[in-house]
Write a structure and sequence with these properties.
407 residues, mainly alpha, 2 domains, 18 helices, 1% strand
C-alpha cells in the first residue's frame, strides 16, 4: 500500500499516465533529450587532453577521475549530520554523495539527460567539505573570514580541490554543477545559466570567495544535469537525515508533524522524484509543483528545528570544537610561515598534494597564500584526523571528544 503524507495529500508518488508514457518512450529509445548536455560539448582547460571516445565518454572520464582522488576516499570519514555516535549505520558524507547521485540519475534518466555528467557532478559535489559537517564549515569560515575578509563555503572549496589541488582537467560542466549545487538554497523552478567558458567561471568562483552567500545564493547551473543534482541533494538528505536522527536516538518515530517517522524517506524519494519528472519532462528547465515544493521546504525546516540544531557538534561540544578549529588554524599558519617541514601540514598535506600534482606536470603553490593553504589542509581532514590532531595540540581535548563504546 502506497504511503500517504497527510500534510501533502495531493502530492503523488507515481507519474500521471501521460507522463509515464513519455518517460517509457525516453527510456526505450535511449536517446538524449535536446536539452541534455552532450559529451561532445565538454569544455576543458586543456582541450587537447581527455577527448571524448566511445569507450570512455567525456563525463565517464570525469566521474572516474573523482572516484580515484584521495579527497573522495576521505568522504567516508566525514560527518553528514552526526559526528559522535557509536553507530556504523549512520550516514557519512561518502554515502550521501552516492545517494545524491542515485536520486539525480533517477530524475535524469526519466528526462533523457546525460546521466554520466549527473554522476560526475553528484560524486564530486561535497569533495571539499570539512570534518564535522556544516558546523565544521561554519567554524572554519569564522576564523578564515576574521583573518582575511574572505568566505569559506564547501561548494567553492570543492571546485578548488577538483580544479587546482587535484589538477585533473575536469570539464567546466562538472565544476559548474559542483559550485552551483547549493543544497541549502531550494528553488521551485531551476533554469540554467548562460555560462560558456572558464574565463567567466573563474570570475564567478572568485566572487564566491569575496562575497560568500551574496554571490553563492544567486548561482544557477549551466546544465539541466547540474539542476538535477541540485534538487537531488535536498531530496536525498531531507528524509535520510530524519531516519538517522531516529536511529541515533535523538528523535522518536512520532516526533515529526507528518506522522510518518522514518518512513518519510521512502515517501519523499518517491513523491519528490515523481513530482520533478512530472513537471519537467520535455522542458528546458526543472520544476516542482507548488504543493511538493512547499512540503519539501516544510520538511527541511522541521529538520532544522528538531535535528540539526540538536546534533552534538552544534550543541554541548560546539564551543570546544570551534576553539579547536581556530587554534589549529593558527598553529598551521605558524608552521607554514616558519617553514617547519616536520609539521603535519607539510608531512600530511603539502608533500602529498605536491606528489599528486607532479604526475600532471603541476605544482602546489602553497606559499602564495598561507591562509588558503591552511584552509586546504583543515577542510581536507576527516573527523578522526581532526580529533587526533586537536588532541596532539591540546591533550585536554581528549576529555571533550567521545570514546566510542559499542558494548
Amino acid at each position: 500500500m502506497a504511503l500517504v503524507n497527510p500534510l501533502a495529500p495531493t502530492v503523488r508518488t507515481t507519474l500521471s499516465p501521460e507522463v509515464e508514457a513519455q518517460v517509457a518512450h525516453i527510456r526505450r529509445s535511449g536517446e538524449l533529450s535536446p536539452f541534455a548536455c552532450q559529451n561532445s560539448q565538454a569544455i576543458r582547460r586543456a582541450a587537447e587532453h581527455d577527448e571524448d571516445t566511445p569507450l570512455r565518454p567525456s563525463y565517464v572520464r570525469d566521474a572516474e577521475k573523482v572516484l580515484h582522488m584521495p579527497a573522495y576516499n576521505r568522504l567516508a570519514g566525514k560527518t553528514q549530520v552526526f559526528s559522535f555516535r557509536a553507530n556504523d549505520d549512520l550516514c557519512r558524507r561518502g554515502l550521501h554523495v552516492q545517494l545524491v547521485s542515485r536520486v539525480a540519475r533517477d530524475i535524469g534518466s526519466a528526462l533523457g539527460l546525460n546521466c554520466d555528467l549527473i554522476d560526475a557532478i553528484a560524486l564530486a559535489h561535497d569533495i571539499g567539505h570539512t570534518p564535522f559537517g556544516h558546523a565544521g564549515e561554519r567554524f572554519l569560515n569564522a576564523i578564515y573570514h576574521e583573518r582575511t575578509g574572505r568566505w569559506f563555503f564547501h561548494n567553492v572549496q570543492s571546485v578548488r580541490v577538483l580544479d587546482v589541488l587535484g589538477g585533473r582537467n575536469l570539464s567546466l560542466q562538472v565544476l559548474d554543477g559542483v559550485i552551483c549545487h547549493n543544497g541549502e538554497f531550494e528553488q521551485q523552478v531551476l533554469a540554467t545559466s548562460d555560462l560558456d567558458g572558464f574565463e567567466a567561471f573563474d570570475r564567478m568562483v572568485e566572487g564566491c570567495w569575496q562575497q560568500g552567500d551574496a554571490a553563492i545564493s544567486h548561482l544557477r547551473p549551466m546544465t539541466l544535469e547540474g539542476c538535477a543534482v541540485r534538487v537531488a541533494d535536498i531530496i536525498a538528505y531531507v528524509g535520510k537525515d530524519r531516519q538517522d536522527a531516529i536511529r541515533a536516538g535523538l528523535c522518536g518515530e512520532a516526533a515529526f508533524d507528518d506522522g510518518l517517522g522514518g518512513a518519510y524517506n521512502a515517501w519523499a524519494l518517491s513523491a519528490f522524484i515523481a513530482d520533478v519528472v512530472e513537471h519537467s519532462v520535455g522542458k528546458a528547465r526543472l520544476a516542482m509543483s507548488e504543493e511538493a515544493f512547499a512540503e519539501m521546504r516544510r520538511a527541511k525546516r522541521e529538520n532544522y528545528e528538531k535535528i540539526y540544531g540538536a546534533a552534538e557538534v552544534n550543541g554541548e561540544f560546539s564551543p570546544q570544537i570551534r576553539e579547536s578549529f581556530a587554534g589549529m588554524y593558527l598553529q598551521v599558519i605558524d608552521d607554514l610561515a616558519a617553514g617547519r617541514e616536520e609539521a603535519p601540514v607539510f608531512r600530511h598535506h603539502i608533500r602529498m598534494i605536491g606528489e599528486w600534482l607532479s604526475h600532471y606536470g603541476k605544482a602546489y603553490d602553497w606559499q602564495h597564500d598561507l591562509e588558503l593553504t591552511a584552509v586546504d589542509y583543515l577542510s581536507s581532514m576527516t573527523d578522526d584526523y581532526f580529533m587526533a590532531y586537536a588532541t596532539a595540540l591540546n591533550p585536554q581535548m581528549s576529555d571533550v571528544f567521545p570514546r566510542y563504546r559499542h558494548f
